[in-house]
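Is it possible to get an amino acid sequence alongside its tokenized fold?
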Amino acid sequence: MAPGWQALIDFFFPPRCPFCAESREEKNPAGICSACFRQIREVAHPRCPRCGVDFASDLGEDHLCSDCLRGDGHFARARAWAHYEGLIPAILAQFKYRGHSRLAKPLGDLLAGYRDPDLSFADYGLVIPVPLHPRRLRQRGFNQSLLLARRISRRHSLPLDFTALRRIRPTVPQTELSAAERQKNIRGAFAISDPRPVNGKNLLLVDDVYTTGATVEECAKVLIKAGARQVDVLTLARAR
């Protein structure tokens, strides 16, 4: 559409913030109004260079957190755009549990616009979303991680694969469990249907929220075992 026509449409039908539905002029590229955007706190330095968790103090340099110091995992690094607090939990609840799939565009655009000197979208041969079990997919109607991954794929012209990695058994929602229970709950829940798409590639694994890292760690383990060269993780939000 020509810019002139778009400006005319916006004049008579001002675009509304996808979060609060208010019509406000000041918006970021994802169309979110400044009032909503101020309620979001982005993950900042100093942080762990591997799992991406930021530290309580804003002084000092990046360093490994206590969890990452205890041992190596299967993903190389994880990054998240914002903290799982303020407006984010309510927005994700609408997105995931109330069928508001329209939020995939603004949320996906925020994730696709993520900038980090340690993470370049050009380095990845494939984008893979964390899969849902078929039973959960039927209940929800869509996989929120796939919708986010699709926005990244389109924005950066990266191949997207949502069939190579499968969830082969249903699991209890991770939000209901402790850290130890999460690891036990998710163990053996994923499998590779075909290793050829992932073999030898750097993969970007996409999910909505990183909490303990149990889910993305289990996915990365399966992907590395199938021949992936490296697995990095990108999530919309990071819970402490």
Observations:
- The longest strand covers residues 202-210.
